[in-house]
Predict the structure.
Amino acid sequence: MSVTHSVLPPLRVLDLTEGGCMLGGRLLGDAGADVIVIEKPEGSSSRTGPYYHNSGDPQQSLVWFSFNVNKRGITLDIEHPEGQETFRRLTAGADIIMESFPPGYMNRLGIGYDDLCRIKPDIIYCAVTPFGQQGPKSGYPASELTAWASSGYLNACGEPDEAPVWISVPQTNLFGGCEGAVGSLMAYYHRLTTGEGQFVDVSMQEAIVSPNMNSLPMWDTNGIDFKRVGSAIYVASTGVKQKIYFKCRDGYVMILAIGGNEPYLTSSSALVRWMDENGQAPDWLKRIDWATDFNAS
């Protein structure tokens, strides 16, 4: 992206994140920042499959491609004194540093936030970890499942009479990376007005509390204690339980109508009529009165 078409003013970002956290650097790169990926000599652990044309070549990792668009890259061993000194020189010309190492890792190498502030006092340093830098859970082993469970969101996932289930596609790192980008830009705005840099501490667990935005306000706004409804979606304002997963001959299909109760009922009724005209509507489906049976299942 050229500077003349950039959303951001000239910014340089040093990106040491891994996995889905790399999305944060990509978002900044998409907005026009000069993002430099710092990769260890043996290659990033994020160069995983699937691969282009199933080549198995880490240089053709589609995961790596997708999260590192609009970035430049260098190879640097930050665990070696020479690499640490190079990193310090890079920091002198950078605006934002993003990393996703365990808490304290960069400090032990002598290139943590306090160390780098002595080189560039207004540096913005963003660290993305499962449970933040401090507190009782900061050193906990973390997984996709434990992070989602601790956010409360699993309460909304699964059948009502069974245990909660986890989210199918790994997303905690993605949320963490996104919030890292947002927090870094907020810190940059603060720097523009005060001249001060900041340490941005991003907890993935806190980041993935945000998907609860549909369930948490239900009690305050409608006095409804939200409960998971399995293969349906619950419309709190009407009490409607809209089934969204349907078993078909060759598997399942999801049909999700957004926009309130009326579009769902109208479209469902029209769909069943079309199926009936083509001889594909089962009797149980034709018996549903879509005008009155709001909890059709």
